[in-house]
C-alpha cells in the first residue's frame, strides 16, 4: 500500500491495470467456482436419482419408515426387558469371538505390517532393490476388501472364525504397513548405522535400532486399527464367519416376536464399540503424548 | 539421564549409588517388558489357536474345493454330451445352454457323425459309437463301455488291476485323465475337455464375431460394424459385461453419494459441536453425543436398519455410508474448526462482513484443505466399504461377487470380479491421492502458484510483496 501511495503522479494507470487484473481474476475464479459447483450439484442429483431408481424401495417411501424397525425392536426389548440380561449372557461368548477375531487379526496384521514396512523403507530395507515390490504387495493387500477373501476362504476352510481372521489380517497388514512405513521415514537412521558398525544383523538392527524409536506410534496405529477391525469382524460374521454378526443374522431372520434377541445383540455391539473406542482413544492419547516429550 | 548432567557437582557417592540403583531398576523393567511383551502376544496367539479350533480346521478344510477353485479360475471345460436315448450329441462350454454350439456344429477337435470322434490330444481319443463308447488311453489301452437301458453300463477294461483314476460300477463308468474326463451312465455319455483361459469372454458362440482375431474385428469395425460388435460384447450372456459395469457403477455411486452426503450433513453440524462457534453448552454437548452415538452404532447395524426401510439397492448402501460417516466427519470437522485462526475471521469482520460472509471467507478457506483431504481419503476407503455393504444389502459388485461365490462353480467369474474390485479400489486410491495432492497444494503450496503468476506482475511498477 505504501508503494502505491508513494507514486501518485504516474500511478493512475498501473493502479487501474492492477485493479482491472484483480477484478478479472476474481471474476474468472468465481466463474470456475460456480461452474464446478453446478457440475457437482448435477452429479449429486443425477447420482441420487440413479441410486433411487435402482433401489428396491424409493427414498420417499423408505424415509418415513426408517424408524419403524428400530421402534419395533426397542418396544419388544422394553416389553421383554426381564429377559435381556439372559440374552446378553447368552450372546457374550459370540462377542468374545468377534473381539478375538479382531485382536488376533490386528496382531498378525501388525506383525506382517511391521515386516513389510521395514522392507519397504529406504535405508532400512534388507533388499533395497525389492522396495517397490513390497510397496505393491502392501497396495494389493490394502485394496482387497475383507469380504472377498473371507467368502473364498469360507468355501475352502468351512465357516468359522479363521477365514475372517485371515481376511482381516491381510487387509490390516497392508493398511498398517503403509502407515508404519510413513512412521519409519521419520525415524533416525543413526542407531542403525551404529548397530551395523558393531556387526549387528539386519534383525538386530531393526529390533534394537528401529523398533524402540517407532514403537509408540506403531502401537497407537495398531489400536486404531483394532477399533476398525472390531467393526469389520462383526460385518464378516454376518456373511457366515461366526461371532456376533452371525448371531445377529440368525436373530433377525426369526422375525417378529423374537426381536428381543436382536435388541440384546445391538446393545452388546454398541456398548463394546463405545467402550473400546474410549479406552483406545485414551491409550493413544497417552502414547502420542509420551512420544512427544 | 538429565539429572546426571544437571547436578554433577552433587556427585556424592551416595547419590551416584542411588542413581545407579534407579537406572538398574529402569533397565530391569525395560528388559522385563522386552521379554514379557512377545511372551504375552505368544500366549494370546496360543489361546486363539485353540479357541478358534485351528487343529480341527485341518479336517474341515477341503483340498478338493481348493483344487476346483484354482483350476476353474483360470480354465474352462467344454462338455461333449451324447444322449444315449436319442443318440443326439451336443457340445457346450461349461455345459451351459448359453455357451452351447448351434445344432450340427462343433469345434474342430470333435468330429460329428454316426460315430462321434473326440480328439483329446496326445493320443487320447474318445469315440461315441452307436452302441459303444470307446476311450483310447495311451500307455494303458482301450476302455469300452456299452450303456443300455436294461443292463446298466457294461465296461470292458484292459487286463490287469483297475487304476484309481477309473471308477466303475453297475450303472456308471468314470475316467479321469490329464487330458479330460469321461463319464458314462445309462442315459448319457459325457466328455469334458479342459482349456486354459476365460472362454467366450468377448463374444458368445451365437455372435458372428466369435473367434475373430483383433485385426479382423478392427477391420469390420471400420466397415461400420462397430456398433454391432460393441452390442454383442456388451450383451454377452456368459459374462454379462453390461451388468458388471452397472454393478461397479453402483458401488462407486454408493461411495460417492455416501461420502459427499456425509460431508454435506456433517459440516453444519460440526459448527454446533465446536467451542469457538457454539456458545450454548447444552447444544454443543448434545451434538457431540449425537456424533458419538452415530459412530458407536456400527455400520453393520445401520445397514441392517436401513435395508429394512429402503429394501436392497444402491440407495440403501449410500445411506448406510452417509449415516456412519456423518459421525466420523462431524468429529474430524469440529476438531478442525476448533483449530482455526481467529485473526482471519477478525480481518474479514473488520471489513463489515455479515456473519454468513465471515464464515464463508474467514472460516471455510482455512478448513477446506483438511475437509477435502478427509473427504477424498474416505471416498477411497468407502469404495471398499461399499463392496462389503453391497454384499449385505444387495447392490453393486459386492452382490455379484457373493452370488458368484455362493453358486460355488463359476470361479472364473469370481476371479474376474475380484480382479475388477482390486482394480477399482486401486484406481480410486490413485485418483483420490492425485486429487488430494493437487487440491491441497493449490491451497497451501503457494510457491507454485506465485511462480505461475509472476511473469505478468513483474512488468508492473508496484508489486505487493
Any key phrases for this structure?
heterodimer, A: 293 residues, mainly alpha, MetI-like fold, flat, B: 465 residues, alpha+beta, 2 domains, 6-stranded antiparallel β-sheet, 12 strands, disordered N terminus
Task: Summarize the entry for a quick read.
Chain A has 293 residues and is an all-alpha fold. Chain A contains twelve helices and no strands.
Tell me the β content of chain B. Answer: 5-15%
Number of domains of chain A: 2
Can you tell me the residue ranges of chain B where pLDDT is under 50 for at least 5 consecutive residues? 1-11, 443-465
| Main sheet specs of chain A | none
CATH structural architecture of the largest domain in chain A: Orthogonal Bundle
Q: Write down the secondary-structure element order of chain B.
A: HHHHEEEEEEEEEEEEHHHHHHHHHH
SS element count, helices of chain A: 12
- Average pLDDT of chain B: 77
Oligomer: heterodimer
CATH topology grouping of the largest domain in chain A: MetI-like fold
E-strand count of chain B: 12
Fraction of helical residues of chain A: over 70%
Shape of chain A: flat
- Domain count of chain B: the total is 2
Instruction: Specify the CATH homologous superfamily of the largest domain in chain B.
Output: MetI-like
Layout of SSEs?
The complex is a heterodimer of chains A (293) and B (465).
Chain A: H1 2-6, H2 8-54, H3 59-63, H4 68-79, H5 84-119, H6 131-143, H7 146-157, H8 161-185, H9 190-197, H10 202-241, H11 244-253, H12 259-292
Helix pairs in contact in A: 4-12, 5-6, 5-8, 5-10, 5-12, 6-8, 7-8, 7-10, 8-10, 9-10, 10-11, 10-12, 11-12
Chain B: H1 2-6, H2 13-51, H3 54-60, H4 63-74, E1 75-83, E2 89-93, E3 110-111, E4 116-119, E5 125-128, E6 133-137, E7 141-148, E8 152-156, E9 166-168, E10 172-176, E11 180-185, E12 188-196, H5 214-234, H6 241-272, H7 281-296, H8 299-310, H9 314-338, H10 342-350, H11 355-393, H12 396-407, H13 411-444, H14 446-458
Antiparallel strand pairs in B: 1-2, 1-12, 3-4, 4-5, 5-6, 6-7, 7-8, 9-10, 10-11, 11-12
Amino acid at each position: 500500500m505504501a508503494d502505491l501511495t508513494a507514486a501518485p503522479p504516474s500511478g493512475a494507470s498501473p493502479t487501474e491495470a492492477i485493479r482491472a487484473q484483480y477484478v478479472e481474476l476474481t471474476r474468472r475464479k468465481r466463474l470456475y467456482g460456480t461452474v464446478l459447483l453446478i457440475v457437482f450439484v448435477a452429479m449429486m442429483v443425477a447420482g441420487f436419482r440413479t441410486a433411487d431408481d435402482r433401489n428396491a424401495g424409493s427414498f420417499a417411501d423408505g424415509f418415513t419408515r426408517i424408524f419403524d424397525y428400530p421402534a419395533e425392536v426397542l418396544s419388544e426389548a422394553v416389553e421383554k426387558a426381564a429377559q435381556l440380561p439372559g440374552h446378553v449372557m447368552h450372546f457374550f461368548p459370540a462377542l468374545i469371538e468377534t473381539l478375538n477375531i479382531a485382536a488376533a487379526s490386528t496382531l498378525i496384521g501388525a506383525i506382517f505390517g511391521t515386516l513389510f514396512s521395514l522392507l519397504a523403507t529406504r535405508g532400512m530395507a534388507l533388499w533395497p532393490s525389492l522396495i517397490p515390490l513390497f510397496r505393491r504387495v502392501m497396495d494389493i493387500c490394502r485394496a482387497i476388501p475383507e469380504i472377498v477373501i473371507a467368502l473364498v476362504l469360507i468355501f475352502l476352510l468351512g465357516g468359522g472364525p479363521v477365514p475372517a481372521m485371515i481376511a482381516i489380517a491381510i487387509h490390516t497388514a497392508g493398511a498398517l504397513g503403509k502407515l508404519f512405513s510413513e512412521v519409519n521415514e521419520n525415524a533416525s537412521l543413526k542407531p542403525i548405522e551404529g548397530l551395523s558398525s558393531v556387526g549387528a544383523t539386519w534383525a538386530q538392527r531393526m529390533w534394537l535400532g528401529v523398533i524402540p524409536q517407532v514403537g509408540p506410534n506403531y502401537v497407537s496405529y495398531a489400536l486404531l486399527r483394532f477399533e476398525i477391525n472390531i467393526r469389520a469382524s462383526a460385518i464378516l460374521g454376518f456373511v457366515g464367519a461366526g461371532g456376533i454378526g452371525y448371531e445377529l443374522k440368525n436373530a433377525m431372520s426369526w422375525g417378529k416376536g423374537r426381536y428381543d434377541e436382536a435388541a440384546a445383540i445391538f446393545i452388546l455391539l454398541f456398548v463394546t464399540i463405545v467402550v473400546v473406542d474410549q479406552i483406545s482413544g485414551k491409550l493413544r492419547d497417552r502414547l502420542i503424548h509420551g512420544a512427544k516429550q | 539421564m538429565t539429572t546426571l548432567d544437571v547436578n554433577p557437582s552433587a556427585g556424592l557417592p551416595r547419590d551416584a549409588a542411588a542413581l545407579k540403583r534407579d537406572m538398574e531398576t529402569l533397565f530391569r523393567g525395560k528388559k522385563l517388558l522386552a521379554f514379557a511383551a512377545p511372551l504375552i502376544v505368544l500366549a494370546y496367539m496360543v489361546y486363539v489357536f485353540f479357541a478358534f479350533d485351528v487343529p480341527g480346521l485341518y479336517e474341515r478344510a477341503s483340498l478338493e474345493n481348493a483344487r476346483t477353485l484354482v483350476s476353474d479360475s483360470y480354465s474352462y471345460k467344454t462338455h461333449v454330451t451324447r444322449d444315449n436315448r436319442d443318440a443326439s450329441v451336443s457340445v457346450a462350454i461349461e455345459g451351459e445352454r448359453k455357451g452351447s454350439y448351434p445344432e450340427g456344429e462343433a469345434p474342430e477337435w470333435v468330429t460329428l457323425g454316426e460315430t462321434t470322434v473326440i480328439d483329446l490330444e496326445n493320443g487320447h481319443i474318445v469315440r461315441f459309437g452307436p452302441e459303444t463308447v470307446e476311450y483310447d488311453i495311451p500307455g494303458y489301452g482301450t476302455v469300452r463301455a456299452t450303456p443300455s437301458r436294461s443292463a446298466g453300463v457294461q465296461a470292458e477294461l484292459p487286463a490287469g488291476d483297475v487304476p484309481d483314476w477309473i471308477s466303475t460300477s453297475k450303472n456308471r463308468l468314470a475316467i479321469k485323465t490329464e487330458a479330460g474326463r469321461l463319464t458314462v451312465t445309462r442315459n448319457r455319455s459325457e466328455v469334458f475337455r479342459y482349456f486354459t483361459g476365460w472362454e467366450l469372454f468377448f463374444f458368445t458362440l451365437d455372435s458372428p464375431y466369435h473367434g475373430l482375431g483383433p485385426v479382423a474385428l478392427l477391420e469390420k469395425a471400420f466397415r461400420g460394424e462397430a456398433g454391432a460388435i460393441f452390442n454383442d460384447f456388451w450383451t454377452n450372456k456368459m459374462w454379462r459385461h453390461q451388468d458388471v459395469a452397472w454393478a461397479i457403477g453402483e458401488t462407486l455411486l454408493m461411495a460417492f453419494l455416501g461420502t459427499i452426503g456425509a460431508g454435506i450433513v456433517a459440516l453444519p453440524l460440526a459448527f454446533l459441536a465446536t467451542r469457538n462457534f457454539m456458545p450454548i453448552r447444552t447444544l454443543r454437548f448434545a451434538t457431540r453425543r449425537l456424533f458419538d452415538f452415530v459412530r458407536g452404532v456400527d455400520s453393520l447395524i445401520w445397514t441392517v436398519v436401513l435395508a429394512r426401510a429402503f429394501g436392497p439397492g444402491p440407495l440403501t448402501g449410500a445411506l448406510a455410508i452417509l449415516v456412519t460417516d456423518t459421525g466420523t466427519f462431524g468429529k474430524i470437522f469440529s476438531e478442525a474448526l476448533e483449530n482455526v485462526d481467529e485473526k482471519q475471521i477478525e480481518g474479514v469482520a473488520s471489513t463489515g462482513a455479515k456473519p454468513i460472509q465471515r464464515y464463508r471467507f474467514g472460516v471455510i478457506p482455512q478448513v477446506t484443505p483438511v475437509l477435502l483431504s478427509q473427504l477424498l481419503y474416505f471416498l477411497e476407503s468407502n469404495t471398499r466399504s461399499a463392496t462389503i455393504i453391497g454384499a449385505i444389502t444387495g447392490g453393486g459388485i459386492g452382490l455379484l461377487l457373493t452370488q458368484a461365490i455362493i453358486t460355488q462353480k463359476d470361479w472364473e467369474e469370481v476371479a474376474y470380479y475380484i480382479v475388477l474390485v482390486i482394480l477399482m479400489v486401486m484406481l480410486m486410491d490413485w485418483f483420490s491421492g492425485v486429487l488430494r495432492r493437487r487440491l491441497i497444494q493449490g491451497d497451501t503450496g503457494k510457491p507454485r502458484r506465485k511462480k505461475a503468476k509472476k511473469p505478468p506482475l513483474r512488468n508492473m511498477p508496484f508489486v505487493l510483496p
